[in-house]
Amino acid sequence: MLNVLLSTNELSRLSSELEHQSAEEIIRLAAQMIPNITFACSFGSEDMVILDLIMKVNPSLPIFYLDTDVLFPETYDLRDEVIKLYNPNLIQVRSELTLKQQAQQYEESLWERSPDVCCSIRKVQPLENHLRGYDGWITGIRRQQSPTRANAQLFEQDHRFGLIKVNPIVFWSEDDVWQYIKDHNVPYNVLHDQGYPSIGCLHCTKAVKPGEDPRSGRWAGFAKTECGLHQEIG
């Protein structure tokens, strides 16, 4: 496994050496160094940028999305638009439990009572199962997104899932993301225009006011800003 061959020090050296490379070049190099790599796409603004770059660099690269069965209708609409526009190698990853089975085991609306448990069932466990087939994964993490992501690097050991994590736009600002979308006519989720800077599941995402923490609309009312897919690295 390639993630065993690259030490944390080697990944840090790679991150430093490639710091001034373009995101497109970082993706190109990552796919060369880690042939068995995949991209986790949430269809958020950052991930739409990376998806567009991947389609330019390596259109056959496997791209997966976690379908919790409770995504916003606008997210499903964007997924369908992506399929028509890019025809990507897109993989749907779902929980082993249907919503009905989850309700039978945990009662209805688990997300309202125990969002951590719900995220584990519908996101973390499916992700863990899916990533077992890969040596690396690409994400849209940016340092400016939240304090828990402030120390993210271009290349990291993901000890939780046992593979290499590549964050090609980790240094980008939000303005950088939207400038790319504008310049390259990249489709994006219309909810971004309605006060949703960070978009998750239908029941656990609210719009935020200008100036508020972009992730404050996720799991509002709970001491929770991450679904558990990414380690707290701040």
Q: Can you tell me about this structure?
A:
With 234 residues, the protein is α/β, with parallel strands linked by helices. Helices cover 39% and strands 11% of the residues. It contains nine helices and six strands. It has helices at residues 2-5, 8-17, 23-33, 45-57, 73-86, 99-106, 110-113, 115-131, 174-183, and strands at 37-40, 63-67, 90-94, 136-138, 155-158, 163-166. The chain starts with a helix and ends in a 51-residue tail after the last helix. The protein is globular, with a radius of gyration of 17 Å. The longest helix has 17 residues, at 115-131.
Q: Whole-number average pLDDT? A: 89
| Helix/strand order | HHHEHEHEHHHEEEH
Beta-strand content: 5-15%
**Overall radius of gyration:** 17 Å
What is the number of helices?
9
- Biggest sheet details: 6 strands, mixed
Poorly predicted runs of 5 or more residues: 223-227
Question: In which order are the strands of the major sheet placed?
Answer: 3-2-1-4-6-5
- So what's the overall shape? globular
* Termini separation: 27 Å
Helix content estimate: 25-40%
Secondary structure class reads alpha/beta
The counted number of beta strands is: 6
Which labels suit this protein?
globular; six-stranded mixed β-sheet; alpha/beta; 234 residues; 9 helices
